[in-house]
Every structure is written in structure tokens, then in C-alpha cells.
Amino acid sequence: MKTKISFLFFAVFFLHTTPAFADELPANGAVASGHPLATKAGLEILDKGGNAFDAAIAIASTLNVVEPAMSGLGGYGTTLIYDAQKKEIHYLNSSGKFPIKTNSDLMRLPTTDYLKNREGPKSISTPGNLNSWKEMHNKYGKLPWNALFEQAIHHAKTGFPVSPYMAKLIAFSFNEFSNYSQSFYGKDGQPLTEGGILVQKDLAKTYELIATQGVEPFYRGEIALLIDKQLQELGSFLSIEDLRIDVAEWWDPIKISYQGYDIYTMGTPGNGFSALFTLGVMEQFPVQKLKHNTHEYLHVLAETLKESCKVRLTHSGSTEEKNNIVNNILTTKNFLSVSNRIDTHIASHFDMHAGSEGINTTHFVVVDRWGNIVSSTQTLGLGFGSKVMIEGAGIWMNNSMAFSTFEPKGNPMDVLPGKYKLSSNSPIIITKNDQPWAALGTPGGHTIPQNVAQIIINLIDFGMNMQEAIDAPKLAFFEEKCVVCTEDGIPHTVVSELKKMGHSIDNDHIASYIGLSGKIGNAMGVRIVRDHEAISFDIGIDKRKDGWSTTHRVSK
């Protein structure tokens, strides 16, 4: 029997090789997340007999505490799940609707301070994460609701060491924090540094209330009243009316067939379809013959990513667009047509522009002993979202609206009151022969679909394991500046050849496009390896951020 494990300093746990997923098994499952304390929280739930859905709530709430800049109660997200009993994949949307009082005219000319209105309190959309956790628990949960928040409460109350990348984010944003939030994230008037202990007692109290009373306090009760009062004082569009009407909704995923595998991601509402579009077009080229990360391969990839950006900018992922996306855009006929337009020797000109999207996000994957899977991307938008923390509750609020496209008015990505935020999140589940084969995802704003497509190609076309597929250096196209960035590890000779082909490559300013890390994404993935009657897990944890930090070495 075979057991495959991927970890260095980061503790990735899974227990025993197992005979099959059809019946209850002795193995508890696998977790991949961006922080070892969140991974540990999820595994403890699995150890106690909880399923992937229970564990996902424990992971998400703990990530809120230990990766506070990335996601949490004040944020939004998208989740793909595999229901092992029904053998079905579903998409749970918690992306949060724009507030009903939103006036996007204040975010464009001729409003004098329109740029200022695109950030801070006016950029806050309805936070949907907590409703999605409750919806998932109502439908699939095994353990009691209050048992799922023990680790989040513990780490918020007693504190934990600040990781290297989190220390950078705190230092970068500290001057924008209120005196209240600085009291948690600073010491003697200075931001906490790496290894400093972050204690969040008000957030602990918030989670204690949620653990005992459910979502009611947050969306209708005392926490909702706090949010409403403070945000109204700050001039936000969000009000208690938006909180009261918020729901997490189940939608159908979308899929394509790629090299004999079925690749699923979130359907509408959302722009995850661009990841599938990239794969569909790339399948029309002899990818294996081009060889991994050669200039010939990366040229075709970059040109395909440009085409994918064009599709995303001209066809929103709104529910009204679903039929067009499924029946016209994600078709072999269209993939072939697009591939035929790509010159395999000369880079094309790109003349479409759009706003950026939040990059400080988190993704996690959990698989349980019964074969249920949760692949979830959750975010605040930018690091610490709007930089608005609710006093008395310790909750960072998102800045979802900042990543809309405000000109021209009424375009598909404009802020429309009561409409869903259309993110590029791309949680992925892959099946082969109708059995789950892998689940993965990454943060990274508009680079999310670009990154997951490359990981999938690495897995399927180049035969990499999950860690290799995630570790491999990536390329990204940034439509805001019409430039390509390549990560370290792609040889200078290859970059030089790409420039000769006409690509505008700007690696000197890569951090300005993708954040302080200067790296593309922070992917997490689990591949399910079947060897006759044995099951093992091939786990990948991105080394690009704190997942592999020595600050948080955890053992079980």
C-alpha cells in the first residue's frame, strides 16, 4: 500500500492508505490550507468524526483568525463541493451582493473625489461567508455547529505568532488602520513584526456568539447593529437591510472535458469560466511536444491568456450570460476558432483594459474519509479589505466594490445595486471516469484562472505530482498594463526569446501587479491516488507565502 505526502516545514497531515471511498473508512482524509493552524483545525474535526463540510467551516474560521488580512466574516467567496453520497458537484456562492443603496456614479467622473470613493467604507459589499458556512452545515454537517469554532476562538483569544508575509501586510497597511485596530495589530505604536503574538479578543467574543447562536447575531442581531451603526457613520452604502436579505445560494457548476478529464469550476454568477476557456484553447495545441516552460509553450500560453481576458471583459459571468458561456464560449468549435487566430511566432497587440482585482485571498481543499470534497476560495479583496474594522467585534470588512470596472457606466463589470460581485475565483474539482481525481485552487485576483489552468496542464499534460505542479514557475498576463510577468525559475534565455516574439515583459515591477510577495498565487491542492483498492493523497502546498514558513512549524 502506498502513502504519498508532501511537506517540509509546513505540516500537511493525512492518515493511512485506505481501501475505497464507497464505505466508511479508517482514514480521516486530507487538508491543504495556507496556514498550519488552520490545517490542524480541519484535521481535528476529521479526527472527531466530522466530514469535509464540518472541517471546511473549522478551516475557514481559523483562517479568519490566523490569516486575518485574507478572508473572514467580513468577506465573500466561492465554494465547489463534491457530494460523495449523491456523486454530484455543486457550487455554493457567497460572493455577496452589492448594497441596495449603492450609487456607482460617486465612483466615476464628474464626482470630484471619485477615486477615494472606490476604497474604504464605500467599497464594502455584503459579507456572505458566514451564511455559506451555515448553509453548508445545514445541508451536509455531521458535528454540532458550536464544535466547529473551537480552534478559531482559541487562537483569537490566546494569540499566535505573526508569520513573515502577514508581518509585511501589517506593516504595509498599519498607517491606514484605526486606533482600535492598531491596538490589536501593534505594540507601543508600531506594527507587530514577524513572531509577535497577535491576540484578537473581540474577534474571539464574536465567534463565541456565533458558535452558540448561529448566524442570527451577525445578519440580524447585535453584530449586525454594530456593523450598521458604524458603517453608516463612515458613509458606507452597506446597511442592515443588506445583511438581513443576504443568502448563500447553490448553483450549478460548469465544466469542460480536457484530455479525458472533466474539469469543474464555479458557474455563474462568477467569472471562473475563463480558466476553462484557457484550457479549452490550449488543448488545441500540441502542448506536450512544445515542452514545459519553453518559449514556444509560454508564447502560446500568453496568447491564450490574452484571449481569455478578452472573453472575460466582453462577457460577464452573470446568470443571464450562462447559456451563452456554456453553449457558445466553452465549445470545441470556439476553442478551435480562437486557436486558429493565434500566431505561434508573433505576440499580438492587446488593447482592452479593466480594473484590477483583490489578490490577498485564501484557498483551501479538504477531502474526508467518505470521499466528500470542499474546494473553497474566500477573500476580503485587498489585504485587510477596506481597512475598516468593526469596533467591538474585531471584524475586517471587505472592499469588494474596488475591483469593479466603473467606465463606461452600465458595463457588465460595473457596480449594480443588488447584483452579485463577479469574481475570478476558480475553485476546481477534477474527475476522471466519473470519480474525483483532484481538487485545487489559488488566490490571486485576475491571475487565479491563469494559475489554476497552468497547474492543471502541469498535472495532466506534463505528468507532475501536485507539489511539482504548484511549485513550477508560472507566467501571468496583466491586462491593466498589457504586460506579461514571469516568475523566477523561468530561464532568462526563455524570457529573451519571448521578448523577441513581441511580448512586453515587466518583471522589474512584478510586485506592483501581484502584491508584496512578488509571486503568482498561493495554490493548494489534493490529488486522490487510486492504486487498485488503495487510496492515498498527493498533497500540494504552495511555497510562495507562509504555507512553508518555519515560524509555524506544527506537528501532530
Brief overview:
With 556 residues, the protein is of the alpha+beta class. The protein contains 20 helices and 20 strands.
Explain what this protein looks like in three dimensions:
The protein has 556 residues and is α+β, with helices and mostly antiparallel strands. It has one domain. 34% of the residues lie in helices and 17% in strands. The chain contains 20 helices and 20 strands. The strands form 6 sheets. It has a 6-stranded antiparallel beta sheet, with helices on one face. Strand 5 and strand 6 (190-191) form a beta hairpin.
SSE layout:
Layout: E1 29-32, H1 36-47, H2 52-66, E2 76-83, E3 88-94, H3 114-117, H4 129-140, H5 150-158, E4 160-161, H6 164-173, H7 179-185, E5 186-187, E6 190-191, E7 197-198, H8 201-213, H9 216-219, H10 222-233, H11 240-245, E8 249-251, E9 254-258, E10 261-265, H12 273-282, H13 287-290, H14 295-314, H15 322-329, H16 332-341, E11 361-368, E12 373-379, E13 389-390, E14 395-396, E15 428-432, E16 435-441, H17 447-460, H18 466-471, E17 475-478, E18 483-486, H19 492-500, H20 510-514, E19 524-531, E20 534-541
Antiparallel strand pairs: 1-11, 2-3, 2-12, 3-8, 4-7, 5-6, 9-10, 10-15, 11-12, 13-14, 15-16, 16-19, 17-18, 19-20
Helix pairs in contact: 1-2, 2-4, 2-5, 5-8, 12-14, 12-16, 12-17, 14-19
